Amino acid sequence: MATLTKPDAVAMDSQKLEQVRQLFQQQIDDGLHPGAGLAVYRYGNLVLDIHGGFVNGGGGAGTPEPVTADTMFVLMSSTKPLTASCLYMLKERGKIAWDDLVSKHWPEFAQNGKETVTIRHILTHRGGFPETPASLPPTDWPDWSKVTHAMEQATPIYTPGETMAYHPINYGWVIAEIVRRVDGRTFDRFLAEELTAPLGMSNTYVGLPAGLEGRVSRMHLMEADADASGYSGTFSEPAVLRCIVPGANGVATAGDLARFYAMMERKGVIDGAMVLQPKAVEEAVELQVEGTDQSLGLFAQRSLGLALADIRMGTPTGDPLKTFGHGGAGTSIGWADFDSGLAVGYITNGFRGSATNNARLAAVSQAVRDACI
Asked: Residue 324: is it exposed, middle or buried by C-beta count within 10 angstroms (0-12/13-18/19+)?
């Protein structure tokens, strides 16, 4: 765990950081979520790492179980940039190119209209096959051969490369198999050995090891109509968290999530640990596509696996496209901003609809921005 730096050493206002703490606690007290974690870096220095509330809702039957420094939260799609970073490494090492056909590395993928899908298309949600196959229920997710077969058989509903349509789950499965085909290691092992271990992110997993289930907070549905997909229940199941679902089932502490973004904000190196060259990071965050996402019905700006200028990241004082990160359905946000030097991880265990979720995440992000001097 990184050591806390005094706020004034990195041009942050200690009183305004205290207001961030108060807002963090107020959201819990107001019932926006049972529990949460928040961590903030500036210029690669940790200035805030807090947690609060309860893992189990803090009420009802049983004894309330407080969130601790070791509590991991489900990341949902905040997992996606961690997943994309594995491809950044392979690209930097000359093992792949962004415009490689997926089938160059995975020949069986070139079926049913996916022959022209490139790695860039996958990272920018333009592969054309956004829907999780109905033929692949969560009970099959532990069997990687069934997962890859379903991806091979998937049929695009949009012409690959032409339409931005968010791929909630398929995104991660395709990237994971590309990693496995190119590198030889399974995705969870690659992520652990190449990203989380070098960065000291010891509380981050995609594919939760058996025995750690008790450290992960389940998600709590806070609004009855907030989760038509049923994700809050599905991705709270220990059996699902043990699978490899790199689009959605990562677990982490807020400190680890913020540390990933601090590495990105520092152009690939933090505390002497280098996982990417500056050029690789700069390439990763460059705007690739913008417009209305046909899956979400919302305007989006995307780089290679990252969202740019997202409202949940607060309002930048500089170029909005210098702010990059990703949200997790109903729950969380992680982001960094080159102009301000900030990196933030905010993860809650209360699953809310977009209106109230975006508002609480944006409020915390803005309070962090306002603490900069």
From this structure: buried
What are the pLDDT digits (tens) for 331-368?
999 999 999 999 999 999 999 999 999 999 999 999 99
CB count in 10 Å sphere of residue 221: 17
pLDDT at 136 over 90: yes
Q: What is the pLDDT of residue 282?
A: 98
Helix axis angle for 254-265 and 80-92, nearest 10°, is: 40
Determine whether 40 is exposed, middle or buried from the number of CB atoms within 10 Å of its CB (0-12, 13-18, 19+): buried
C-alpha closest to that of 203 among 9, 73, 346: 73
When pLDDT is averaged across residues 115-131 and rounded to a whole number, the result is 98
Alpha-carbon distances, residue 84 vs 8, 258, 268, 303, 356 (angstroms)? 34, 16, 14, 11, 28
pLDDT score, position 233 = 97
How far apart CA 253 and CA 208 sit, in angstroms, is 13
Task: Using DSSP bridges, classify how beta strands 273-274 and 269-270 pair: parallel, antiparallel or unpaired.
Answer: antiparallel
Calculate helix-pair angle for 170-183, 80-92, nearest 10 degrees: 30
CA distances to 35, 219, 308 from 327, in Å: 17, 15, 11
What is residue 19's three-state secondary structure?
helix
Gyration radius of the chain over CA positions: 19
- Rounded-to-10 torsion of CA 168, 211, 216, 43: -80
The tokens of 57 are what?
């809702």
Residue 86's nearest CA partner among 202, 190, 203 is 190
Task: Determine phi and psi for 77, rounding to 5 degrees.
Answer: -75, 0
Residues facing residue 227 across a β-bridge: none
Query: Three-class SS of residue 81?
Result: helix
Distances (CA, A) of 49 to 27, 41, 192, 367: 16, 9, 22, 15
Q: How many CB atoms within 10 Å of residue 287?
A: 14
| CB burial readout 154-183, b (16+ within 10 A) else e | bebebebbebbbbbbbbbbbbbbbbbbbbb
